[in-house]
């Protein structure tokens, strides 16, 4: 599991995915979420505006990222 440090909380899921380098541009977030490959704390997520707090775990495919 890789930890991704953020400077302020909460952070939106779309912003977090860009910060973590999962997507290059914000427009790629929508298609990634529509694919059903994104989970937050074990639950499928399709909202890019989902608010994340420190300690949340975002899973994209086989990659796990913790908000730090």
Automatic annotation (TrEMBL):
This is RNA-binding S4 domain-containing protein. GO terms for molecular function: RNA binding. Keywords: RNA-binding. It comes from Amycolatopsis acidicola.
